[in-house]
Amino acid sequence: MEYDPFSRAIADDPYPTYRWLRDNAPVYHNPERGFYALSRHEDVLTALLDAETYLTSHGTTLEGIENGFDTLLTTDPPAHGWNRKILARHFSAGQVQDLEPRIRAVAAGLLDEAAGTGRMDLVSGFSAKLPMVIIAEILGLPAEQREVVRELCGRLLERDAEDTPGVLPATATRAAAELAKLFLTLVAQRRGQPGDDLVSLLIHTSVVADDGTRHHLDDQQVLGRLAELTVAGYETVMKLVSSGTVRLAEAPAERAKLVRDPSLIPRAVEEMLRLDPPAQYTGRWTSRDVEVQGTVIPADRRVLLLLGSACHDERVYPDAERMDIQRDIGRQLGFGHGIHLCLGAALARLEARIAFEELLARHPGYEVDYDGVVRTYSSNQRGLKHLPLVLGPPLSLVG
Fold this sequence. Notes:
16 helices, globular, CATH 1.10.630.10, 47% helix, alpha+beta
């Protein structure tokens, strides 16, 4: 069996292929695409924790979406440590809790807009708008630019059937350039007129490198942080909430538990993240020869860590394809792990929890109009572009 992350069949349903890989080729080699792939939970976790052997500075996607951006994800130690410090405190679990009232107000407002229609596209009307509003407010992005940024993020990641697999399409390249121009303009404004926002914090907070020197981030470094925070902060929540909504529709007994006891929603979010992690893989580059499951991966090779597969590994999660909102997840790999754990994980969890609390409080019996569901195709992200829901009167849920 072949594993090609650019295959539309894989994007539609990668999990049977992942299972075959785990059972038959846990260290898979695709010479045509030029990568190895690790699919078992223990191997993916080991690699995520070994930042000396598995480097990110060569990029984390096969087609190089991150090229041109100086991001935390593509920075190896020791520079990664002091670069991350400037943001880590701002996105800690304790810090983001202060955002709960605002997130809830935005979520409630978006859902109330659709209350009288009986239908809504959950993606365009809710799961895409909610995280964009919040990350834009954190960054201090002007309201009139938010829809532009959202559209550019979509163009940067989405792929059409006619695009050459493995090659960054011109539409994505142009979107990256437009996004960079917009952010650099904002950076220039904040250098002269700082405000109470994250852009100003990045510009005017000094960092101390390992050698003891103190300096400020330059424009390209600030640009990289902004692009990373915006794309990841928006795309992750959009895909997690929309995929989770479908999973709950397919598991009515589990949904009924959440309707009766909303305190279970945080654990349900973890299960949604396990079942459908928005980032299906993250790429690394070997700094040395490394043996995994009896196979030696040579130095200077691309290795894909298949997060989507690791999260479905039956060796860790019995009956892994079934949704169990009370499952003990253990080490959650849906946001990665180790030094490159998703910086906005706490914020994403908070937004997802509030999204489902508000959705299920208003529309516990929503139904998915499967004829209108449209999947989005991208390099390493898996999610939905359109998710029409029939809100209707609340249904009687049993289970």
